[in-house]
Amino acid sequence: MAHDCAGLVAMGQSDFNRGDRTPAESIRLTFALYSCSSESAAHDLYASLNLSGAQVSLSESLGDEQTATRDVLKSSADVQPTLLSVKARSGTTMLWVTAMTSEQKTTTERTQAALRLLRDRVQQAKEGIKPNVGARIS
Fold first, then answer.
1. At CB < 8 A and 24+ separation, what contacts does 76-79 make?
2. Farthest CA pair distance, the chain
3. CA 51, CA 55: separation in Å to the nearest integer?
4. Can you tell me whether residue 120 is helix, strand or coil?
5. In this predicted structure, what is the pLDDT of residue 16?
6. CA-CA distance, 129 to 126, in Å (whole number)?
7. Which DSSP symbol is given to 3?
8. What predicted TM-score, i.e. pTM, was given to this entire model?
9. CB 79 within 8 A of CB 22
10. Are 117 and 29 in contact (CB under 8 A)?
11. DSSP class of 73
């Protein structure tokens, strides 16, 4: 578990849901942020958080280390939910974003935009800048 990681200073998570509860009509984004005491501790945490599913290529670099996967989940619904997960480490910070919806809506571009939003906001906080980043993920 991430909270058992030596060197973990702080962590936070936020979930956003839009639409009905069926995979065809909804999207759920989860943002998680982990702050570690050293780059080594952040790397160890990054390595310990396993993502399920097939590897997915990202079109741009989002940090010192990054991994993306897509996994079709088992469900009794007509449309199988798809989980796209992206984790990235930048220095002492580890970011993890997941998107769950239908396969057609769970795109790498949407999840990458969400991760970029989180990464840029963290950078603004480190620099003491008033938050002004945003993303439209429709």
1. 77/22, 77/23, 77/24, 78/24, 79/22, 79/23, 79/24, 79/103
2. 47
3. 9
4. helix
5. 82
6. 8
7. G
8. 0.76
9. yes
10. no
11. P
Angle at 135 between CA 119 and CA 69, to 5 degrees: 60
Cα dist from 122 to 47, 89, 94, 101, 126, whole Å? 21, 12, 10, 26, 6
Query: Which residue ranges of the chain lie beneath pLDDT 70?
Result: 1-4, 21-24, 76-79, 102-106, 133-138
* Structure-block tokens of residue 99: 């998107």
Contact 34, 42 (CB under 8 A): yes
Contact between 135 and 113 under an 8 Å Cβ cutoff? The reply is yes
92-116 tens-digit pLDDT:
999 888 888 766 666 777 777 777 7
For tokens 């993890």, name the residue.
96
What's the CA angle centered on 45, arms 58 and 56, to 5 degrees? 20
**Separation of alpha carbons 121 and 130, rounded Å:** 9
Structure tokens at 82: 């798809």
